Amino acid sequence: MNERDSEQVAQTFAERGYTLTGHESDADAILVNTCSVRDQAEQKALGKMGMMGKYRDVRSHVVYGFMGCMAQSRGAELFDRIPHLDLVVGTQKYHRVFDYVDGILGRRLEERMDEVGAEMVTGRVEDEVKKVNGKEVISAKMVDTEEEKGSQNTIRDHVSKETKQATAFVSIMQGCNMRCSFCIVPDTRGKERGRPIGDIVDEVKRLVDKGVREVTLLGQIVNLYGRTEFEKVDGKSPFVQLLEAVHEVEDLKRIRFTSPHPIGYRDDLVEAFKYLPKLCSHIHFPMQSGSDRILKLMRRPYKNEKFLTICEKMKAARPDLAITTDIIVGFPGETEEDFQATIDCMKQVEFDNSFIFRYSKRKDTPAAEMDGQLSEKVKEERNQALLRIQEEMTTAKNAKLIGTRQEILCEGPSKTNKERLSGRTSQNKIVIFDGDAERMTGEVMDVMVEDSTGYTLYGTPVIH
Ligand code: SF4
Q1: Where are the domains of the chain?
Q2: pTM (2 d.p.)
Q3: What is the pLDDT of residues 136-148, one digit of tens each?
Q4: I need a surface site. Which of 116, 310, 316, 452 has the fewest CB within 10 A?
Q5: Phi, then psi, of 181 in degrees rounded to 5
């Protein structure tokens, strides 16, 4: 989701004549989009921003800004941590970043000393003049973290890539109304707000016109899309109505979505997998824990049995379905018994992959204050145990694919070896193969799987 928001901001700059650079040292403006899900991510963002302050010694006009969740949750206190910071922009204000940056930059480059933050609609403005290498630089210190009605409708533009692009993310909503005790998202992203179906379909059509063949619909709880804004029609939730509408887009080959939640995962969505063939045979379905006691402490309002029932129904609807998940291990109060329940559930569902996170305290969340915090040693041991179990399951599942023919969407050169191509099966498994990037990117094609190294498959295209 952060990646998608960053792309939106980047596109607003590109549209107005700025050039995106891959080198921080060349940049006139450096914006860091921050995640608050884990403390480690915040520390990394702060460290990186601190380190990049050196560019102002050489280019005194450089504008520095934080956007996203950490900007939202910490606001103006970030100026105390990073003295060279100019801008803090929250999660409902991505569409305003360009005006703020352009305003500061324009004045710095023109060396005008009038008020830097004149265009600000909301927020605090505190100009001060500092000397950098004997030159006067206006330090802006602008912050805008207010709520803004309709901000979910502003995440809709995509950066035009020089190379062919086969897949794209489409943000369909923002915010979350749940209050999981470990999560800071409801504070940083606000309440659930969905975009109109027509706007989303138009965005998908524009992407398909540019060559995109697969879209992933994004939301904090994607299956709850539109429940507060739009009506059910013929017993179908707004999310299923959206899937049907996107499915109609000609030349779109595949649809994915992430992430669904057991709450609101109803039979209309299960059924959709039977009659919408463009829906890929994969769901990323966060389980978090296999223990009902821990789910309750996490304030996840469902029992493990419900999670398992949905998995079973989904496998019945799509027999070739792959299920991946998120698990938090070492949550406060997690006993050996609770941990074993998570292991049992992993084995029962036979996840194709799991993203396993060691619980870490997040500031301002109820779980951070709970009794029964586990030692890092215990958390690490349990984390490693789950990783081993998952690795065994994934390796065994992928080994069974050796010698089979799989349909993939070619996504272009592999990220790890540009000489080779990469694609994904409907089950979201990566396949590496040789071929012509220009001709094959965006093509749905068959490959014979010849090898597997645990998580990655290797194959040869089947020439028709
Ligand atoms: S469902 Fe829970 S974990 Fe997911 S974004 Fe909402 S509060 Fe956070």
Answers
A1: 2-144, 151-399, 405-461
A2: 0.83
A3: 666 678 888 888 7
A4: 316
A5: -70, -10
